Amino acid sequence: MGLSLYIIAFVIFIFIAVVAIIAQSNNSEKYYSDLDIDEWDCHECGYHVQVGNICIYCNTKKHKN
Ligand SMILES: [Zn+2]
Question: In the chain, where are the structural domains located?
Answer without folding.
Answer: 2-36
